[in-house]
Write a structure and sequence with these properties.
The protein is of the alpha+beta class. The chain has two domains: about 325 residues, no CATH class; about 55 residues, no CATH class. Helix content is about 20%, strand content about 20%.
Length: about 375
């Protein structure tokens, strides 16, 4: 699957061409600024730290281009995150969030926690005190740090994993650097490498949650009713596209846009304007129509996959405002001239130093594999290590 060379411009580009055709200015004068203006309007309700800008960038395939850069606080302004874990097996659905399993959405109420052994056909499940019915919850920073990762510390197994936004450093920001116009990729890339994109409320649209790792440790890490939860590395983020997402009406009778993918293509709501669901989507969740260039439609809420993959070269995610973007480094093995500061890097990522070293293995490190083990993106790992 390839993005056609004549499809340099996506839906954002189509809006730019509309402005050009109306005689406002030449394409060379307005192409970038029109795209920046349109995207900035889409992110008007994001928790922005600074105004969006256009920067030079190098994409995952090595192409140098212009990118849209936005720095945000990793928390929404349109709703309050949570709740996630019910306090007792007698608690109602209002006290907990949701869980996604085989395409279905389940309310995480007390009864759901109580019956996990039946749900997963495994009698070892016991996330609550048998005498009081109290659910064991990771309700402190230390417990969150020990459980909200693929290799859960033994003492935090048999817990409902809940990390509060207050556990995240208050100064933390996330900078997204995304191509203004998509660039053809040789082959689709897994969203685990970069994430899916960013919602218009400024919250990360993540890759699929590592459900197998979570469940293998006898933990449950629910999402709130908006499909989001918190980890210490990236803050609040979404694993499902729900009705909570801020929508921006496009100029096309095809549905509403809900976010921007890391490769520059717009992400539209799952359903079309007439309430139907497109049936011709590719493996990444996108298509083009006779009227529209290529774009994505978010996955079904219960699928645990906002996008299946990315069809074009992707940009960067960083915790450093204004960071230079060279995403071509993210999928390569590399080495440093001196030993990295593991202690500082581990603190930035919200993991223990020994866990970070174990994930990296012997030099030269395979950043892609290490990031997968830690449940973070390659870019965040490399940035924390100073690569």
């Amino acid at each position: 699957m390839r993005v056609q060379k004549d499809m340099k411009i996506s839906l954002i580009g189509s809006l730019v061409l509309t402005a050009v055709s109306c005689g406002f200015a030449s394409a060379s004068e307005i192409e970038e600024q029109s795209a920046l203006k349109q995207l900035s309007a889409y992110f008007a309700k994001a928790n922005m730290v600074a105004n969006p800008s256009i920067v030079d960038c190098t994409l995952s395939g090595g192409n140098k281009t212009k990118c849209f850069q936005i720095t945000v606080k990793p928390e929404p302004m349109t709703h309050t995150p949570g709740p996630w874990c019910p306090e007792n097996i007698s608690s109602s659905a209002d006290s907990g969030g949701i869980w996604l399993e085989e395409g279905k959405v389940y309310d995480v109420n007390g009864a759901f926690i109580e019956n996990l052994s039946t749900f997963y056909s495994d009698e070892k499940w016991r996330l609550f005190d048998s005498e009081t019915g109290a659910v064991r919850i990771t309700d402190t920073y230390e417990k969150c740090a020990g459980a909200a990762k693929p290799n859960v510390e033994p003492e935090y197994q048999q817990h409902c994993v809940e990390c509060q936004p207050s556990f995240v450093e208050q100064s933390k920001t996330i900078t997204y650097t995304i191509p203004l116009f998509p660039t053809e990729a040789d082959q689709p890339s897994n969203t685990r490498e970069s994430g899916s994109g960013i919602a218009f409320d400024g919250v990360r649209l993540d890759a699929s949650a590592p459900v197998s790792d979570i469940l293998s440790n006898y933990t449950l890490a629910p999402f709130d009713d908006c499909g989001g939860h918190v980890n210490l590395a990236v803050g609040y983020h979404y694993h499902a596209a729900t009705d909570c997402l801020q929508k921006a009406a496009t100029s096309f009778d095809h549905g509403e846009a809900v976010g921007l993918a890391m490769d520059g293509h717009l992400i539209l709501a799952r359903q079309l304007s007439d309430g139907s669901t497109p049936t011709d989507l590719d493996q990444c969740g996108g298509h083009q129509t006779e009227q529209l260039p290529y774009h994505y439609h978010a996955g079904e809420q219960g699928s645990n996959a906002i996008l299946g993959c990315l069809v074009a070269e992707y940009g960067c995610v960083s915790t450093e405002p204004g960071a230079e973007c060279d995403s071509s480094k993210s999928s390569k093995k590399g080495s440093r001239r001196g030993p990295p500061d593991f202690a500082t890097a581990a603190k930035r990522l919200g993991v223990r130093e020994d866990e970070l070293k174990k994930a990296l293995g012997t030099p030269p490190p395979d950043f892609k594999e290490a990031a997968s083990r830690l449940g973070i993106t390659v870019e965040l790992l490399q940035q924390a290590l100073g690569n």
